[in-house]
Amino acid sequence: MSWTFLEYVNERGQGAIAVWLDSLPIGIREDVKAALDASLQLIRPVEHLTRQQNVGKLTNKHGAMGKGLYEIQFKAVKIQWRPLFCYLPGHKIVLLAGAAERGSRLVPDGICDTAHGRAAQLNEPGRLRAYDYK
Question: 7, CA 20 to 30 Å: which among 37, 62, 69, 71?
């Protein structure tokens, strides 16, 4: 069974990943999106995701804030990127927020709080849509 990718939608109808990508400098935005989309293509058919696919639980270095959150790891433009997600039943991955790793921390600051808040809203109407990747 292949994975279905969804993204959180904010109150203005904007997808979390689209907003994150739009916040990146224009010179790297397309490279980061292409690397994310390539990562999703690679993991889509994999039944059980593990660190071998660069997917996994947030590590203990993020403490309790990482509880229940997972990350997709990829590198683009010499930066380690860490989009955060959660699972839903039915082989679904919900992309909640985008982040970069700087040293041993995720930026922007508070991104785990943001992702948890979004995950808590997923049962509200209109908070999910298919993530459009190539």
Answer: 62
Contacts of 70 (CB under 8 A, 6+ apart): 55, 56, 57, 58, 84, 85, 86, 87
pLDDT tens readout for residues 6-59:
999 999 999 999 999 999 999 999 999 999 999 999 999 998 887 788 898 886
Token look-up 């993530």 returns: 131
SS (H, E, C) the chain: CCCEEEEEECCCCCEHHHHHHHHCCHHHHHHHHHHHHHHHHHHCCCCCCCHHHCEEECCHHHHHHHCCCEEECEEECCEEECCEEEEECCCEEEEEECCEEECCEEECCCHHHHHHHHHHCCCCCCCEEECCCC
Model's pTM, two decimal places? 0.92
Domain positions in the chain: 4-130
Beta bridge partner(s), residue 28: none
> ω before 125 within 30° of 0 (cis)?
no
